[in-house]
Amino acid sequence: METSNLVEVNDLLVRFPVHDGKRKMFIHPVDHVSFSIKPGEVLALVGESGSGKSTIGKALLRILEPAHGTIEVGGQDVTHIKHNALKAYRKDVQMVFQDPFGSLNPTRTVEQHIVYPLKKHRREKFDMETRVDELLQQVGLTPVQETRVKYPHELSGGQRQRVAIARALAANPKFLVADEPISMLDVSIRAGILRLMNQLREDYNLAYLYITHDLASARYFGHRIMVLYGGKVMETATAEELIRHPLHPYTKLLLAATPGSGIRGPLPETSNRAPNLLQDRRGCPFADRCPLVTEICLEKTPPIVEVATNHATACHHIA
Amino acid sequence: MSDQQPVLELVDLSVAYQTSSGLVNAVNDVNLTIFREEIVGLVGESGSGKSTMAYAIMRLLKGDAFITKGTIRVMGQDVYAMSVKELRQFRWDQMAMVFQSAMSALNPVMTVETQILDTILAHRKEWSRDKALARACELLDLVRIDRKALKSYPHELSGGMRQRVVIAIAITLNPGFVIMDEPTTALDVVVQRSILDQIREIQRQEKFAVLFISHDFSLVAEMASKVAIMYAGRLVEMTDSTTLSLGQTHHPYTEGLLRAIPHLTADKIIIEGIPGTPPNLVNLPTGCAFHPRCPKVIPICKTERPLTSTYENGMVECHLFSRDKEAQPIGN
Amino acid sequence: MSTDGKPVVNSVRRARRRRSHGNGALHAFFQNGKAIVGFSIFSVFVLVGVFAWLLAPYDPASTNFPPSLGPSWAHWLGTTNTGQDIFSQFIWGTQTSLIVGVGAAVVSTLIGFIVGVYGGYKGGIADSILNAFSNIFLVMPGLALLILIESYVKNTTPIVNGLIIALTGWAWGARVFRSVAMSLASRDFIVAARLSGAGTLRIMFAEILPNMTSQIAGNLIYSCLGAIMAEAGLAYLGFENIASNSWGTILFWAQNGGAMLNGAWWWFVPPGMAIALVGTSLALMNFGIDQITNPRLRVQKSQVRGVRKTDTVQAGGTRDV
């Protein structure tokens, strides 16, 4: 844990302006979040819509610039880098998108999608044609020669996602942000994509930030799971530990609600209000839905406390 | 079971689309019976024809889609033998549908109240406005939305609330049969779960039958008592959900699907996808449509379409099953 | 793979050529009867323009002929009151008018594309400024502005006129391009291109441009039409070097020479007809553009050709919903 974190995020804060009548306000979709990822490790970010999980991914890729905090990747502080430094940084960090229909340019062929990042991020000499073939083979798009010249609309959703993965790999990254990469695919091909990502992790010692709403796939693919709610970390633990021994009331709620949990009966929540993201909110973001809520939850933000080895949670009523 | 009155009866139903490349069969020879108060799940991937089937039952097929064969009876009445006027009365009164996208099912420029009242008054012309309003309030209580929401426009509600309103509108007139086409797919898991719990509760109270369409196996297994699995327009397996959750299914496709999803609580998780991609309906493989992706394929699968075999817990369309059945009579 | 590298690469190249995206668009364009008619008419004019030096029997400027003749074998469209051959003027005028029209269309579309797409893609302050700028050009009355500029820039050649027309007429296109670019900019593939290391220029021209072919073609057609009309109008009003030779100047001289009063229809009808015909042909071609706009149409076409066997989503899925 102490040695060689590939990604170190410290006290990350992202804010967006909102116009609330006359006043200019800010919301904090990501509110003081810290985590780290080691090479070859998969951190699964789990949360509902509005939890800030995708925003964290965008901040890591520096599609967004954080308002506060630091992001270090491979020892380099990338929080506010620009231009050439940013371009160089993107050799190390790539992304797999949720919607395989929107993430490929409909007017470009498969090979065009892959050749460009190959050229752009080339570090050593290699034969372009061979490298394209290798990549396509690696992501399971065979026969390669047939696939190369196809346009996105000629591919199925799963095949497109494989092209997107090959494109990300072309930059030869150390770290991939995968934002719900399987949620829009057919059930029968989801496993194939997950297994492919896992295979690539083993082959290249790739680290992943796996963003998902689905605890089951987070458990399968992630080494650790971080549960987010309202832009804040609720609980972090190793995947198995989090599923088996959830501590935070929100994690418990999520688990109970996930199909296949076997948990029947009423959900452990007191309302179904969406989290408040405004900058001036106080206390625990989950307080107004939490069955354990007390006075202090509404007043004070609970600190993240390590309750066991590799298991931390932010709740006033635990530990 | 069998002496009960069926709510939905599909007999040899086939639906085709007229496309520029000829007729495309989206639904093929589907036989399905749903009895009173039953929840039947229908699982399939995109392009499997599950939604087409739902639209055919509702007689909502549009444009170039039409029924080529078979009959659809809802509450004992042939849906396609009705006049348009009868159909308009029958739809919503006897059978209703909950669509996937609540936003497009609701009219954005009308309040929730107007939309519910319009539905009621269109079918219950003798009702007074007050009576209809009372019913609307009752419905909102049923789906647990604050009555204040009546005055809201759809965009003022959250996704979960909107879907609850859509469900309320579907059951407004106490239909005997409701089709739910991926009613919670666009929602967060917690909201999804609470809506599904509600659907089950209301279903028990109001005693209607449900055809629950979804791509999510574990969700369907929790919701439904029987589950039908559709592949390339055909019903390939039908079984009860206990059998399904125990993994005692017979069709290789079902087995593949079960292996393809990570289970939340299973001890060891090994998942594997089904190789290949779902077939193109324009260009279906010969024999069993699943054979190019099937790990247990035998020569006959490539040439001959398997026949439907029924057994006590359901039906399956697979050569392996009929071969095994010949070898040893089923019954264990 | 590398063992049989060469033949493979060749076959890839061949396949690429056979199924390039642009061909699909062209194919769709020529599926449309109106577009074919429009294209044919326009092609005739283009040929006339290109081969003007072959087709024109005389020097259009020469005044060596008897003045004010009617149509005859020697002078198909007669002569002017100063003894010039109108047919030769018409042929050379076709060339000028087309150069002005096409040139102005290309320049204004390019400006509109850069302004609109840059703003739409970048957003923020750049977009606010560029958008305000295009709005200013949009609200200014076109012809009045042209006349104002012309009265400062005296005796312009048709080419300069074309430039002025382009420089004042790009704003409408910029608006269209901006809105399309804005919707494209939010698509993931643009983000992916950024992550692949693409700069703004590449994203504008390699990622966004191919997805706007129909808007670009439509804009080219409309601004070409507009430019031909505007140029003719300016020349007719006398805001062009009267020694130049375009359909507009022919009309100007016809008016000056009293052709309408004398009933010398052969003088003013041909250029008028030509302007109307080119306009019609451009409008007809625009119908074909609709065919390109709808990618679904093209998808189905390729299905018929049996290219695709793997795609289920399009065949069943989209209808399935």
Largest sheet of chain C: none
The computed structural class of chain C is: mainly alpha
- Report the sheet with the most strands of chain A, covering strand number, pairing sense and barrel closure: 8 strands, mixed
Q: Can you count the helices of chain C?
A: 17
**Total beta strand runs of chain A:** 12
Distance between the termini of chain A: 23 Å
Low-confidence stretches of chain A: none
The structure class of chain A reads alpha/beta
Percentage beta strand of chain C: under 5%
How many runs of DSSP E, i.e. beta strands of chain C?
0
- Over the alpha carbons, how many angstroms does the gyration radius of chain A reach? 21 Å
- The main sheet of chain A orders its strands as 6-7-8-3-9-10-12-11
What string, H for helix and E for strand, traces the elements of chain C in order?
HHHHHHHHHHHHHHHHH
Helix tally of chain A equals 11
Distance between the termini of chain C: 41 Å
* Rg estimate of chain C, integer Å: 24 Å
Please tell me the overall pLDDT of chain C.
79
- Average pLDDT over all residues of chain A: 91
Write a compact overview of the structure shown:
The complex is a heterotrimer of chains A (319), B (332) and C (321). With 319 residues, chain A is α/β, with parallel strands linked by helices.
What can you see in these coordinates?
The complex is a heterotrimer of chains A (319), B (332) and C (321). The model of chain A has no long low-confidence stretch (mean pLDDT 91). With 319 residues, chain A is an alpha/beta fold. An 8-stranded mixed sheet of chain A has the order 6-7-8-3-9-10-12-11, sandwiched between helices. A 4-stranded antiparallel sheet of chain A has the order 2-1-4-5. Chain A is 32% helix and 24% strand. Chain B starts with 5 loop residues before the first strand and ends in a 5-residue tail after the last helix. Chain B is 34% helix and 24% strand. In chain B, strands 6-7-8-3-9-10-12-11 form an 8-stranded mixed sheet, sandwiched between helices. Chain C is built from 17 helices and no strands. Chain C is elongated, with a radius of gyration of 24 Å. Residues 1-21 and 295-321 of chain C have low confidence and may be disordered. Chain B binds chain C through residues 17, 19-21, 24, 26, 46-52, 65, 100, 233, 277-283, and chain C through 300-301, 303-304, 308-313, 315-317, 319-321.
